[in-house]
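Posting this for the archive.
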Amino acid sequence: MMYDFSFANLWDGAFPSETWRGLVDDILARDSAQMSRYTALGQPSSLATSLCRILHDERGIRCTPEQIVFGAGTDGVLTTILQLFSDRPPLVGTEEPGYIAIPQIANRTRHTLVPLPVSDDPREFADALGKGAPTVIYTTPSRQFPTGRAMPEGLRAQVLEWAQRADAYVIEDDTCWEYRFDGKSVPALQAQDDHDRVIYVGNMSKALSPGMRIAYAVLPPQVMEKYRALFSFAHEPVSHLEAEVLARFIDEGHWEPHLQRMREGMKLRHDTMAESLSRELGDIASLSGVGSGMHLFASVENGMTQEELVTRARDAGAAVYGADLCWFSQPAPTGTVILGFSSFDVADIPAAASALARAWR
């Protein structure tokens, strides 16, 4: 048996199949003619209206449905956003370590990366921001990927002040906002922005379905003008059927109980994983990101390189993920791995942690 420490997939049975199937059948019975047409342009979809309400209630996001655009996953949304800044110097600042896909996305859109160090000293991030002079920066302030840290309040204020002063924009990827288990609420950066400098990005992959590839962005009014000019004849990347089903799922009251079930299930997996890893590896591994999210970030001090940690774990029946791709301007520190818990059956977690102990001791 291979234990998969995936940090993106959900456990079997997480998706609300029965409810979803009923909504699909009902929509096809009532509105099958729409499946023969393109979605109308120039007006917000029912999904944008429903999502706008969730974002306001859950994250304090200030927006209208007209400001929400969709994409095929976070990668698709980020690619679209960076295309909106083709008329500016092609510099995009990004956290290091940071989201694995950013270097590829920047390469496709012909942007140059400016590293913004994530460390114990927030001044390093602020200094790099001032020296690098990017046009736009990508951040994960509520739960930094991959470390799981929250951006310090003082640095949040500095980032917003910099964006206003430099006529720049901040892409806030509010990844895993659904999952906080320690009671510490971390506000969205967009909710603290008084100058329309934050582009808020989210997705439905973490709480509903990674396979549906539904992500979205809330664009400030001036950025929305660019979007309309560049994509005036583009059709929605989310299919009409999926969008209508999801809107109905939200509007008919299924979203809140589903999200509560997911939070309870994810917390159980988080707690079991954190306890099991502490018991099996507490003397040789330090963890960050505890208390939130879908994965833990581990620094293992046993003399093994990252490649050896991954290989030894696989030989012991455990698939873990090295963090080397999260660094792009310098080599990754040795011994750093990402240990996801989101796809596990809870009963398998202690045995999976034991497999890591056999591999790394």
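The domain at 17-253 is CATH 3.40.640.10 (Aspartate Aminotransferase; domain 2). The chain has two domains: 3-13+256-360, 17-253.
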